[in-house]
Amino acid sequence: MPRLTAERKSEEQKSEDLSTGLRRSEESVKGKVYLVGAGPGDPELLTLKAFRLLRAAEAVLHDDLVAPEIRKLIPPSARIYNVGKRCGKKKILQGEINGLMIALASSGLRVVRLKCGDPLIFGRAGEEIEALRAGSIPFEIVPGVTSALGAAAAAAIPLTHRRASSAVVFITAHRATDRVSDRVSDKDVTNWQKLAASGATLVIYMPGQDYSDIGRRLTSAGLAGDTPCAIISRATSQRQRTHRTTVRDLHCSPQLAAPTLLVVGEVVGLADPAALVEQFVPPSVSPVADHVLPAALF
User: Fold this and answer.
1) Which of 125, 197, 236, 296 is buried most deeply by CB count within 10 Å?
2) Residue 41 sits in which domain range?
3) Total-model pTM
4) Could you read off the pLDDT of 145-164 as tens digits, one per residue?
């Protein structure tokens, strides 16, 4: 009996070792997903880590508005997927993006999910993180310069100032606008009133083209009509345009090309007027070779 027991244990150990080996083999084949911020547009605002990962990527899923100069950094050998949307028209559903990331990483590829600005700020990274965790896919988040900071810097607008604003709030017009009806809900009014009363600088992502609606909501929230505003289009790119106005005159604003940001607050009045009307021209960037940056940095 002792001999049979020992043999049974030996067989069980072999079976367990085989299962462990198979699991390890599957794990070794599995790739990794990097959720990478591409910054606001200027390729020189990419982080060194984002640059390194992009150059080493085997598959890249990028937003539609990622600057062409940044997309040129993707290796020719990489699989490239445009998974963004323009003017609300989606090329692919979020669930399909999640499935594609999981499938590519499961096949052993280094996958870069390239997002405009910072992936954790209005980039739906939260949903993608949940999907990757559910699929047991290793992932890493690489922050980027969010569009609000890039746009404010390019337009010389200090988002905080001890004499004007001690706080800044990022919000989306998509969340603030009632798409079902033109009626302003009590909850919506309350939220905007809290923001207006705080005295914080408001940076409104994805304001769309209906500035009259946003103007009405800001006025209903209690903001003065002469509160300065700035609309910044294609921030930090060679095609950047800015338009300065006030809450009262928001409805008269021109329709600038997406992506746009709307900055609302007294800090806009502290900006250099020349920066709000002149075109922003970043330095030209030549094709990047692997030896351009010192290897020691990586």
Assistant:
1) 236
2) 21-145
3) 0.78
4) 999 999 999 999 999 998 88
